[in-house]
Amino acid sequence: MSSVRGDVRIDARTLQEALASADPVPETDHPGYTIGDATPLAAVRPKTIDGVATALTAATRLGAAVVPWGGGTRMGLGNPPSRYDLALDMRGLSSVVEHRPEDLVVTVEAGCTMQALQDVLRDSGQYLPLDPPLPAQATVGGLLATGISGPLSTAVGTPRDQVIGMRAVLADGSIVKNGGIVVKNVTGYAMDRLYIGAMGTLAVIAEATFKVTPLPRAEATVVATFSSMNAATTVCNVVTAQGLPLMAAEVLNGAAWSQVGQSDDGNGDYTLLLRVAGRPSAVARSIDACVAACRETGVANVESLNDDASVSLWKKVTDLGWESGPPDLALRLLGTPAHSAELVALAAQESDAAVSVSPTRGVVKAYWNSDALPPDVHAYIAGLREAVTALNGTVVVESRSRLDGVDAWGPTPDSFAVMRQLKEQYDPHGILNPGRYVGGL
Amino acid sequence: MESLIKELRQALGRRYVMERPEELLVYEYDGSVERGAPQIVAVPADTEQVSRVVSIARKHGVPVVPRGAGTGLSGGAIPAKGGILMPLTRMNRILEIDAAERVAIVEPGVVNIDISKAAEPYGLRYAPDPSSQKACTIGGNVAENAGGPHCLAYGVTTNHVLGMETVLADGSVVWVGGRQHESIGYDLRGVLIGSEGTLAVTTKVAVRLQPLPEMVTTMLAIFQEEDEAGAAVSAIIASGIVPAAIEMMDKLTIQAVEPAIHAGYPADAGAVLLVEVEGLRESVAEEAAEVQEICRASSATEVRVADDPAERERLWAGRKTALGALGRLAPSYYLLDGVVPRSRVLDALRRIREISQEYGLPIANVFHAGDGNLHPCILFDERIPDELRRSKEAGGAILRACLDLGGALSGEHGVGLEKQEYMDLCFTNADLDAMARLNPGFASGETFNPGKIFPSGASCVELLQHPAIAKLGLDAFV
User: Fold this and answer.
1) CA–CA dist A397, A403 (Å, integer)
2) Which pLDDT tens digit goes with each residue over A214-236?
3) B55: how many CB neighbours lie within 10 A of its CB?
4) Who contacts B21 (Cβ-Cβ below 8 Å, separation ≥6)?
5) Within 10 A of B235 (CB to CB), how many other CB atoms are there?
6) Of B237, B423, B443, which has the smallest distance from its Cβ to A102's Cβ?
7) What is the Cβ-side half-sphere exposure of residue A72, based on CA atoms within 13 angstroms?
8) Which residues of chain A have a CB within 8 Å of the CB of B159?
């Protein structure tokens, strides 16, 4: 077997031989690394950062295209790689390197799952406020490479905001670090920012150091269902302005609310979830304030879930759309908070999408299963993109079962020329996840 | 040179381009002890003028050094290689405050505290609060990824800036990030923040605003021994409380502060802690009670508590005037910015004391204890030339000690000119090479603030205590 790139022919045997010392994965397991209909010529699962460097050095020498893998939950994000020779499975680097509870920091290897990391932190009464879907599968490295935020970003921002140090491997195999284990640091450029969210197209993230947070002593979620999206966002704004200790705020449409198993009669309704956390006294006060804000709009049905019930509801909300593998279509709409309601209306028009929105951040997620897909998906996305772009927003295709020819990212940003120059600097031979990211980077 | 000045004057107007030595003099220093003169000072009024200055500079092959209020401690605003110094202080308009979205769009010359003042009527504030917030500009904050006492709970500049309008080296104007909380493409915003003005010029900033806390309680605890104060800090963190700020002053600082402001610190006090908690009434009351209990259990001889703004200001007074008061102890001082993991603060203080004895120079410490960000202040007399050299060496020894303890060279002021020669102590050539590739990535060449951050081999700027800084007092800077 071989793959052809321009005039370079990469021979599977040559590649596999070059990778012999980088913990190769047996050929029988290669189908596990299939993307679309592309299976790699070779796969490695190094156990050390040096092994990652060895693999990338070999790939650069041979001109082999590398696709880094974490838990595989987000392989549908972005465009399919334009070339694919080597699967670089990072799950061999799976340890929590150092947790310093007294410093509220933790250093962890990229292949560690989010669940395993949270388990270690929980033993010291701490957690990392990042909440990707399927945490038992999703790895730290995958989360950082995609840079995707979950509901907890309401309070603490995106994965970028939690990272204080990083070790990564560049395409040429050099191992580089920046930052450290201190929470304030302006010593050299913040290279981690560049690698986070870059979909592995600039460097392979091998290890990260995060700020962590004490677990709240109590938490609760106020649940209220409104007949309009505007009413739900209004309440959300009222509550946010009061400075309550809000961990997360999401609004789910009827389809989404029934998908998290809460009701099946709510079509047309919008359910607002307000998650508050802190000391029991502050949580109690916050619940009262949230309930009062809901009641003021005339909503009759308001309930609150405490502690365990709240935690398990949010597990379902975080997994929404991904419960049984990647959804047939998942879109993410990025806009401003003020456009939240409009974005939701656009995402759900003429279709039965399950929609969840973070109204304080203007981030909308919409999911479709095969039976609910819009009749003409291409036309649907094109139309949606036009409308969302008019609001200065962006539509990202996060997952798709079959959508050949649709660009996952849409129009490139104004600063794209710089991005392309950066790609040339960090990956001059274009071996890292080629074609996967914005504008074919 | 003449045609360069002529072109700049055509672009900005005659009075906003300065070249006479007496005009340039005031621009040759910042909050650091470094000094270096520009050939020209050009003060643009808007983004278009910034773009024109950059294009003209590029054409003539001279560098541009952007400057805010000049409060940085690392020499970031010092022209290391001459050229055009470009203060952005005329661009000081708050363009928009969107209370519903909790976003403000401001020009780079807006003073940090003015954003919070403008947001206050809406019940909002801009969280990062460098101690120089009454003087420092948001553009400078972005360049240095500035922190401040309250970054313990809320994070630093990068966590609060959504996007910037920037001028690149070819004069083009692009937004990186924006009003949206999330956008696609590489995080150029994230790498430009803290890049010390070396890659692009910031011409507008979109900042996140947050609701004002319902209640704020400030506590001042006095300890006989530094170790006791350190133990209190650890115990507070271990209890799961994340105060908005934990600040500490050491014995030498206290001895300088007390005669200056008569705060009532006992003459033999070993350390003073300032702890601030904020949020909902309920949690603030509980946390404040717990913090007091912890301080007493750690042998605090006295704990003062204040809830109302005037009283709280009084408790902060000692901290805020500390560096000015240190001026009473010596004619010159060299203020450092280093950082260690918070659990190693006491070890760092011990090392600093040893270094103080080794070099025969008193060193005072007033710093952000909660996040391990130290500000050792080396007291010396510049009239004794040997003291100048020893101060610089002592500073180097302190930075090495920070690195040995697992820390970093700079917590909030950047590398600039001051620390570039120490960069290879904490980074490999590969690390530095990866950072250096940003420059061709942004195609910035030698256009912006050249000669900073990376080891140069030869530093052309001397360590000097500028008389004007001695007059102003360093409180304006930390």
Assistant:
1) 10
2) 999 999 999 999 999 999 999 99
3) 17
4) none
5) 17
6) B237
7) 11
8) 157, 161
Condensed to tens digits (0 to 9), the pLDDT of residues B42-60 reads: 999 999 999 999 999 999 9
User: Is-contact B142 B207, C-beta < 8 A?
Assistant: no
Vertex B429, ends B426 and B433: CA angle to 5°?
A: 110
Q: In A, which residues are within 8 Å of B102 by CB distance?
A: 240, 337, 360
Whole-number mean pLDDT of chain A? 93
Quote the Cα angle for B183-B186-B187, to 5°: 70
Whole-Å CA distances, A361 to A303, A342, A365, B183: 24, 13, 12, 11
- The Cα–Cα gap between A191 and A437 comes to 18
pLDDT per position as a tens digit, A387-410: 999 999 999 999 988 777 899 999
Phi, psi of B464 (to 5 degrees): -140, 145
Confidence of residue B148 (pLDDT cuts 50, 70, 90): confident
| pLDDT tens-digit series, residues B218-271 | 999 999 999 999 999 999 999 999 999 999 999 999 999 999 999 889 989 999
The answer to whether B21 contacts chain A (CB < 8 Å) is no
Going along chain B from its start, the domains and CATH numbers come out as 2-89 (3.30.43.10), 99-211 (3.30.465.10), 213-327 (3.30.70.3450)
Measured CA to CA, the distance from residue B300 to residue B237 in angstroms comes to 17
pLDDT for position B475: 44
Beta strands per DSSP E along A151-283: 163-170, 175-179, 203-211, 213-214, 218-226, 246-253, 270-278
Q: Quick one: angle between helices B345-359 and B226-238, nearest 10?
A: 160
Specify the pairing of strand A163-170 against strand A175-179.
Answer: antiparallel
Which residues from chain A sit within 8 angstroms of residue B236, using beta carbons?
A: none
In chain B, count of helices (H) and strands (E)?
Answer: 17, 20
List all residues of chain B from 457 to 476 with a beta carbon under 8 Å from chain A: none
Contact A421 B282 (CB under 8 A): no
The minimum CA-CA distance between A155 and chain B, rounded to whole Å, is 10
Examine the predicted complex and report whether its ipTM is higher than 0.90: yes
Low-confidence winner among A32-41, B169-178, B469-478 (lowest mean pLDDT): B469-478
Place of tokens 């499975």: A89
Least confident of A392-401, B111-120, B285-294, B462-471: B462-471
Separation in Å, CA B456 to CA A65, B315, B424, B449:
37, 44, 11, 13
Q: Which of A188, A242, A337 sits opposite B435 (nearest CB)?
A: A188
The B residues from 294 to 353 touching A (CB cutoff 8 Å) are 339-343
Domains and CATH numbers, chain A: 2-91+426-440 (3.30.43.10), 93-214 (3.30.465.10), 218-319 (3.30.70.2190), 329-400 (3.30.70)
Report pLDDT for A348.
85
Q: Name the least confident of A209-223, A295-309, B89-103.
A: A295-309
| Neighbouring residues of B381: CB distance < 8 A, sequence distance ≥ 6 | B330, B331, B332, B387
